[in-house]
Amino acid sequence: MGLSRSAAKSVGCLLALTFWFLLALCAAAAETLPTNSARVTHTVLTNVLSSFQVKPGFRLELAAVEPMVTAPVAMAFDENGRLFVVEMRDAAQPQEATPHLGRIRLLEDVEADGAYRSSTVYAEDLVWPSAVACYAGGIFVATASQILYLKDSKADGVVDVRRTILTGFGGTNALNSQTVLNNFNWGLDNRIHGATAGLGGVITAPNGPLANSISLAGSDFSFDPRTSAVFPEAGPAQSGLSFDNDGRRFESDFIRPLRLAMYAPRYAARNPYFPRLPEMLDCAGTAPPILHFVSMTAPKPGTVRSTGGNRLGPAVMLETKVLAPGWLTNAHGCAVYRGSAFPTNYLNSLFIADPDAHVIHHAVLRENGLELLAERAADERNTEFLLCKDSAFRPVQVICGPDGVLYVADLQDGYERGRIFRIVPENFRRPKLPQLGKARTYDLVASLAQPDGWHRDTAARLLFERQDPAAVLLLSNMLNRAKVPLARLHALHALEGCAAFQEANLVSGLQDADDRVREHSVALCERLARDGAVSDTLWDQLKPLAGDPALRVRYQLALSLGEIRRPDKARVLAEILNRDRGNAWIQNAALSSTAEGAGSLFVLLAGDAWFRSDSAEFLRQLALMTGAKGRMDEVIQVLDFIDQSALGRTEAFGLLATLGEGLRRTHSSLALVDSPGRLARFYSQALEAMADEKASKQTRLEAVRLLGVSPSTFADIGSWLLLLCEPRQPASLQSAALAVLGRYGDPNVLNELLKRLPALALQMRNQAIGALLSRNDRLPALLAAIEDGRISPADFSSTQKNFLRTHHDSAISQRAVRLFGPVPVHRPETLDQYKSALRLAGTADHGQAIFSARCASCHQAHGNIQPLGPDLTAARFMGKEKLLEAIVEPNAVVAPTYAPWTAETQAGESLIGIKEDESLAAITLRQLDGTRAVWPRLNLQAIEARSWSFMPVGLEEGLSPQDMADLLDYVTTGADLRGR
Q1: Is residue 878 scored above 90 in pLDDT?
Q2: CA–CA separation, 215 vs 635, rounded Å?
Q3: φ, ψ for residue 93 (rounded to 5)?
């Protein structure tokens, strides 16, 4: 129990006099005071604030200092303005070394002057607490692999309710201070959202009213605080999560400071048969520079300098300070400002903390269709919103408070010290702290119209907690009559959280004048769909929204249509696709919504000559997906259309080829689905076109591809395909012919290609060897050809050699190792040869030319071709020495995200690529040419990860140490290396 008010006054002066002495004496001064509560006299501490530089028009205040708080990593305000603070002490220690590492503090502003003078240890002995959210008079707390619910039900300062709500985060993986659950947020959907930092795991609710077990591999999550039901969410975020007023979800990673969730995982899961766009969009684009203070002198002996990424180490005692440009290397937070105290131009902008750069970065969002781009504010071009000269300042979280200003958790070095700051406008007058916990239902509903996001969210949460039947009529009235669009939006979701949510509410929302309300109403229609069925009334309201003036409404409709089964659904999707031609996100949404009905959609779109001409690539993708799904009714619809329509040869060949390729991937074929033989005329026409050198290159190319999925054998068309492999033929035709030849199991393929190999250009020679490697039954003969000298080991690429060296058949791998040697990993002599480059001054312009010639093909995107290697924008934080090691010894350390995978199909084909996506039904491989292919699992005999890199060994050959210095300088100077 806390000290009485009179007792506090009696000790206040003494504490004020000894406050700085205690801080200097011991960072753990808080432990010398009563652990239940403590009071100190508020001190301005101007000597601390003088080291900060904050944007003009704002000022910085100390809200809580030691001993009121230590090592804060997360914060949450309850409905009465009390501040719960997570303290993660000694987090730098291994998990097993200190089993009880943290606690929860409850801070109260008893004098209502903005200074927290009452500090209560709310919960002790928590294993790595890392996130907190208030609910039903208590708190949810993330602790290592669990989420606990804690509550002081007797209001005596002692937690007497302690329940495990969810468990299983991280599985058996060891935790560390950089990989923990983080950033709990209340969402419009009446759930608590959290970031997993990629922990994954199978999550269960041991004490929940509903049985619940779900895998969170590669995603974040939300959970229903009443039922403990868990839902996968787009992600995973490493260090930050926040929502804007429209309900859009933003996340942070250490070196990707701002990403936007473009769609929910449930939309991707329902149709895994096409290569989907990423769930998360990098809003930063070309990373805008930040400014932070750095030392111009070496660190003092015994100190540890931050490595610029994931570690919080002891402070470096900085001496001479200068401003230096850089980028966020340890981003935390991404708090969307939704308060009412700042000027209105700050609404929905973002604030991101970086403890390594000692800054709070401010980003302004700009609409770009469905995407958002983060940009530096015009008046912050040459500075940061807040920066600090003192390296002890390490901000790790930013949140909006009930007073409409920003609160910053400052986790100082060693995880034993810390402060909480408040950023306020210069002329800010603090309002009275809210007491929403005592508010009537009527007042809570009225609070949904507040301009401050914290008030709206908290009122919505309390309405959800109370489930007061009297709220339904009040919320319905607000939805129908409120003048403030955000009030109507919150009312809509608050009604959904009540048991009395009705179709009439959605009809009202779908007709709303505000596009945000319409957008969310479309999404909420999914809640009323039962096995895909919606009422005629609701459907009649949804259909016209295909022509809605707001792109976001049309996008949400394209996503939600996948949850609805209506005979004319394909027509609505077709209308959206016609209106938004070329929009990749709309196309991605439409494909996700065609787990059923792909054939009908294809017929509608392909029947429009304008669409066929303008969106031919999308039609191909739709046909490919239809084949890969293998639903015969849909396949027949596509075949009927091609057979009965007056398409040109090139169009017909291309669509049949992509449909046949999809069928091949599902271990079927055009021959199996075309029992009447009506496609025979197309095969004859394709053979004529392929041999006709007067036909257009595109027509001949599509003809080759069609014949590759036709019933034709090597004996039938092999001689024609071999003619196309001659160097005088266009490279695209040579490449297509080699790909088709590689599929045939005929032993003559090997002999014929070996004859022609010396005459082929280097790139075509490599593709020919790839074709020979594409079938396992050909590998023994291919190795024999190397052994008897008919083919040189030098003709094999690094990837091809490694594929054979690590083949799952030991007889193959052992022969390959004898021929090529083992996979090269460490190359100390070569590394030593280039270490002098680390001491040379580099020239970035020359380095860029080297990068373009040797690296860009794998590390930059080119149109629809995705890079095979990682985005090197983050490589600048590796340091030149690590980067040099990665270039010279690419197989030493291989990031799992870019590790090669090999697979074998039922037909004996070998596949190789990066496993980009997977589900129980299919996997997506990014192939060596950068294209993405979806393969149904039913057609795969085996799939395995490999431990070597696609990056070739010997990339440095021909470079001098000065050339290497130039390349290192270019990659590490902050140039945009993504090629977007």
Answers
A1: no
A2: 33
A3: -80, 150
Q: Note the pLDDT tens digit of each residue in 792-825.
A: 999 999 999 999 999 999 999 999 999 999 999 9
Alpha helices in 439-531 (DSSP H): 441-447, 453-466, 470-481, 485-496, 503-510, 515-528
Range of weakest confidence among 250-264, 412-426, 578-592: 412-426
CB-hemisphere CA count at 13 Å for 549?
5
Distance between CA atoms of residues 355 and 333, nearest Å: 11
Distance from CA of residue 182 to its chain's centroid? 15
Only one residue has tokens 């031919």, namely: 616
Taking alpha carbons only, the member of 564, 556, 571 closest to residue 596 is 564
89-97: long-range contacts, CB 8 A cutoff, minimum separation 24: 89/415, 89/416, 90/415, 90/416, 91/128, 91/177, 91/415, 92/177, 92/312, 92/313, 92/414, 92/415, 95/127, 95/128, 95/144, 95/174, 95/175, 95/176
Return the exposure string of 4-19: e unless at least 16 CB atoms fall within 10 Å of the residue's CB, then b.
Answer: eeeebeeeeeebeeeb
Cα 259 to Cα 241, 253, 265, 393, 725, distances in angstroms:
9, 8, 15, 25, 45
- Find out whether 196 and 221 touch, Cβ atoms under 8 Å: yes
More confident residue, 746 or 301: 746
Measured over the CA atoms of residue 52, residue 55, residue 61 and residue 67, the dihedral's sign is negative
The answer to whether 294 and 282 are in contact (CB under 8 A) is no
Nearest in space to 300 (alpha carbons), one of 313, 318, 312: 318
Q: For residue 287, give Cα distances in angstroms to 239, 257, 325, 334, 371.
A: 18, 9, 12, 15, 16
DSSP SS3 for 877 = helix
Asked if residues 619 and 627 have their Cβ atoms less than 8 Å apart, the reply is no
Secondary element (H or E) of residue 830: helix 828-834
Residues 6+ apart with CB under 8 A from 863: none
Q: Are 522 and 553 contacting, i.e. CB atoms less than 8 angstroms apart?
A: yes
Task: Say how far residue 610 (Cα) sits from the centre of its chain.
Answer: 35
Cα 388 from Cα 934, distance rounded (Å): 49
Q: Residues with Cβ < 8 Å from 187, sequence gap 6 or more?
A: 193, 222, 243, 247, 249
Tell me the pairing of strands 52-54 and 321-326. unpaired
Neighbour tally for 497: CB within 10 Å? 21
Confidence (pLDDT) at 113: 85
Q: Provide the β-strand partners of residue 58.
A: 425
In 3D space, the residue among 693, 725, 721 whose CA is nearest the CA of residue 707 turns out to be 721
H and E: helices and strands count for the chain: 33, 35
Q: Give the residue from 18, 9, 61 showing the smallest Cα distance to 39.
A: 9
CB 530: neighbour CB atoms within 10 A?
7
Q: Which of 294, 338, 331, 332 is nearest to 316 (CA)?
A: 294
**Residue 14 in this model has a pLDDT that exceeds 70:** no
DSSP state of 450: -
Residues contacting residue 20 through CB under 8 Å, at least 6 positions apart: none
pLDDT of amino acid 91: 54
How far is the C-alpha of 396 from the C-alpha of 73, rounded, in Å? 6
Q: How far apart are CA 361 and CA 213, in angstroms?
A: 38
How many whole angstroms separate alpha carbon 194 and alpha carbon 793?
Answer: 52
844-856: pLDDT as tens digits: 899 999 998 988 8
Kindly state the average pLDDT of the residues 462-475. 97
Do the strands 900-905 and 910-918 form a parallel or antiparallel pair, or are they unpaired? antiparallel
Angle subtended at Cα 756 by Cα 754 and Cα 762, rounded to the nearest 5 degrees: 95
Q: Could you write out the three-class secondary structure of 835-875?
A: HHHHHCCCCHHHHHHHHHHHCHHHHCCECCECCCCCCHHHH
- pLDDT (0 to 100) of residue 5: 38
Residue recorded with tokens 């473009």: 262
